[in-house]
Structures are given as C-alpha cells and as structure tokens.
Amino acid sequence: MTDLRLDALRHALPGLRLLDAAADLEHYGRDATRRWTPAPLAIAQPANTGEVQGIARWANEHRIALVPSGGRTGLSGGAVAANGELVVSLERMRRVLAFDPVDRTLTVEAGIPLQAAQDAAREHGLQYPVDFASRGTATIGGGIATNAGGVRVLRYGNTREWIAGLKLVTGTGELLDLNRGLLKNSSGYDLRHLAIGAEGTLGIVVEATLRLADPPPPTGVMLLALPGFDAIMPLFAQLRRTLRLEAFEFLTDKALRHVLAHSGKDPFDSTHPYYVLTEFEVDEAAALSAFEHAVGQGWVEDGVIAASEAQAAELWRLREGISESLAPHTPYKNDVAVRVSAMPAFLAEADALLGREYPDFEVVWFGHIGDGNLHINVLKPAGMAQGAFAERCGGVTVHLAELLEKHGGSISAEHGIGLAKKPWLLGTRSAAEIELMRGIRRVFDPNRIMNPGKVFDP
Q1: Which of 315, 333, 320, 337 is nearest to 428 (CA)?
Q2: Pairing outcome for strands 163-170 and 105-109
Q3: Which of 57, 110, 114, 352 fits a disulfide with 141 by CB distance 3.0 to 4.6 angstroms?
C-alpha cells in the first residue's frame, strides 16, 4: 500500500532518494547494539542541506519522527529506528567542502567517514587528531553527536575540542551556522557546544569545520604485561611523568585471547592477566629507562617495544581488534568514566562487583584508562536468549551505576546515552539538569521529531 505521507515527501523533494525495501529498513534501522528490532518507516538519503531542511519541514507537518544516521557504529542505541521513524542517512553527504591553510581548518559534510577526513587533512600536511578503531565507517557527524573520544584523548582531547563550527538543521527545519570557525567568540551562548554530544536530539548536523593540528611527532609503541590490576595506575603515573604520552590503553588477557583467536601471534611466550598498550613521543633512552624502572617496581613482567611501523600497527591491532572479535558473542556493553584520580578505588570495587554478579559469564575489560574511560563487555552465553541476557545484565548495571555515582563518574564516557543508558542518566545528571535539557530540546525541536526517546523521555 502506498504511504501518502511518503508520497507527500516525494512531491516536496522530487530529487530525494527514498528507500523502503525490507533489507534497507533492516540495515539502516539499527546501530551496532543489535538489541532492538528495526522498524523504520523508510530511509531518506538527502544529497544536500536543502533536502535535510525539507525533510525536517515535512516531518513537522506530518508529525513523523526522524532518526539521524551516520555510520551506525554506535553502541548505545542512539541510531535505532524501532517505532516507524524516518531514518535520515547522511551517507551521500560526504564531501570535503573547503580547506583553509591560514585558519588550518577543514570543512566537511557530516556524512564523511572519519578516516576520509583524516586523509584529507594529511594531504595538506596536517592532522585531524580524533581517532578510534571504527574510523573507516564512523562519520564526522556521528562523532559530533556523541562527542567521541577514542584512543588519543590523553593528548588531544575529545571531538568537542576540534570543532571550530558546525551547521545544524533544527527540528523546525531552520539552518543554524554555529560559531563560523572563530577562535574567539564571546557573543552570547555557544550553541555549537549544545549540539556536540546531543545525539541528534536538537537537530541534524549537516556540516562541520574541523580544526587541524600539526602532524604527530615520531612515536614509539610499547605493549607491557602486568602481574595484577593494582599495577596499572602506578605504571600510568610513572609513564606520564617520564614520557610524552599519546595513548595509554588497557586490556585483559581475556580480551587479548579473543583478538588472537581471529588472527595474529601472541607477542609473549607466556600469558599475563593484564596488558597496557602505550604510545609516546619517541625517546628511546627514556622509554627503556621507564620500562626498566617499572620492572624493578614489580609493575611490569614483560614488554615489547615496536621496532618498526609495521610492528607498531600489529601491536595496536591487538587493542583495536577487541570490539570486532567480541561482536559474535553479542556483548552487553558498559562504557563508563570516572576521574583518573578516582580510578584505583573504582576499579577495585567494580572488579569485585562484576566478579560477584557475573560468576557464570565471561567479562572482558579494556579501555582508555589514561583518561578514566573503561569498556566493560559481558559476553552472552551461547544458549541464553537475548532478552533474558539483557535483563540479567541490566540488573547488574543498576549496581554499577550506583557505584559510578558514588565515585562521581558517568554511565557513558564516549558512546552516548541513546536508548541503552537512558535508565541510568539520573545517576550522572541531576533531576534539575535533566529538566533544563528537556527545556532546551523543546526550543530546538518543539514538535519532538528529532530522535525522540533517546537520552531522556519527554
């Protein structure tokens, strides 16, 4: 049966690409969580900002909810369309629009993959330093929507620090040009920063002006084997004091085993319970001295220092390949953050909590521990139904959220709230904050068409 609402959209925007085949609804209606059954109305693939504005106006007229969609690598259900929404996929809006050598900025459409933006910056002898494993698929717009962090936050910070300006189509179809690439701008509220991390609830980011940095200095990479959990933070403190760290990543032996089951060779002759992967500005003498000191303190049992770029890439694959290697096990993911200073106490209590509550489940830890961010993955047993597994994990997340609140942490460090973390938002934000956020959302999107149901309920 023909949907008259979609007919009206086709009439209003005759050049708009619309998809409604079952395979397309399945593909574009979900993100990487795989916990919700996709059921979108259709998939719109605008080719320009004008078409995005037209979609928003149509959605207001017909009261159709919109779900912005980038690379759909999100892990919190933020890009799920499960209730008849129109998915607005920006994959046709992936052009590099401008490079400014004086301002050192790159202006791109929001659908461009992160890696393509990084490559474009390199062509001009600069870098866009936000980086994470899904760089080939994740888009700049998606990174803005969740204020993505990644593996180099320790040196460069989150996405927020690198967005000089952006264009946002609001829930009324109005186009806002926010900050316009200015370095200094004290002319009232900076609405750009409201859009960053809003997960598409205030509007659809269609264009971004990225700040670029000098190319990274030559770096070294070490993979260190640790005897116990309590060695991680002393090691971090020592390396940060003696080296210029780019990254400090943590993984358990369980995580390493899953990666090696896919491919690759174990860099060590024996197994160790915990590992740290660190990248640092090259200083061979300082690195060797730091390693020897850590061994002498009993913090490190073994280590590998990459002798080539190829070996460095192979060591990084052991960290960046974790999520892909866990995907077949349908993991329940928690992406949490605490202050780095609070990490030792939180780690001890969280480890005890998970050991007590999940004695029969495999739990895999890894994360960007140098910036206080941990990823906790509970793997679904092969014979357990998805619904029962999610319910069991959700019950334990209640306790984890209480622990995070105790330590002043957040239930979401970099994956967003979406649908998955919405029940625990109150542990991170006060009721007064959430009510203010609701009010801001109503101003940008009075008819609540922009990604409704995500982050918090109306």
Answers
A1: 337
A2: unpaired
A3: 110
Q: The tokens 């474009």 sit on which residue?
A: 120
Secondary structure letter of residue 125 according to DSSP: T
Residue 32 reports pLDDT greater than 80: yes
Q: What confidence tier does 305 reach under pLDDT thresholds 50, 70, 90? A: very high
Pull the structure tokens for residue 302: 């073994």
- How far is it between the farthest Cα atoms of the chain? 73
The residue-averaged pLDDT of 359-388 equals 90
Domain ranges of the chain: 4-90, 96-211, 219-323, 330-427
User: Which whole number is the average pLDDT over 180-200?
Assistant: 96
Helix, strand, coil shares of the chain as percentages rounded to 5?
Answer: 40, 20, 40
Tokens of 317: 């694959």
Kindly indicate the confidence band of residue 358, based on its pLDDT and cuts at 50, 70 and 90: confident
Q: Distance between CA atoms of 130 and 162, rounded to whole angstroms?
A: 8
Give the CATH architecture of domain 96-211.
2-Layer Sandwich (3.30)
pLDDT digits (tens, 9 = 90+) for 195-237: 999 999 999 999 999 999 999 999 999 999 999 988 999 999 9
- Structure tokens of 86? 């129109």
Would you identify the CATH topology of the domain 219-323?
A: Alpha-Beta Plaits (3.30.70)
CATH number belonging to the domain at 4-90, selected among 3.30.420.140, 3.30.43.10, 2.60.40.1930, 3.40.50.1970: 3.30.43.10
Residue 384 and residue 355: Cα distance in Å, rounded? Answer: 19
Query: 70: which residues sit within 8 A by CB, 6+ positions away?
Result: 79, 89, 90, 91, 110, 111, 138, 139, 140, 141, 142, 145
- Which CATH code of 3.40.50.10490, 3.30.420.40, 3.30.70.2740, 3.40.50.1000 fits the domain covering 330-427? 3.30.70.2740
Cα separation of 431 and 429, whole Å? 7
Rounded to an integer, what distance in angstroms lies between the CA atom of residue 357 and that of residue 379? 14
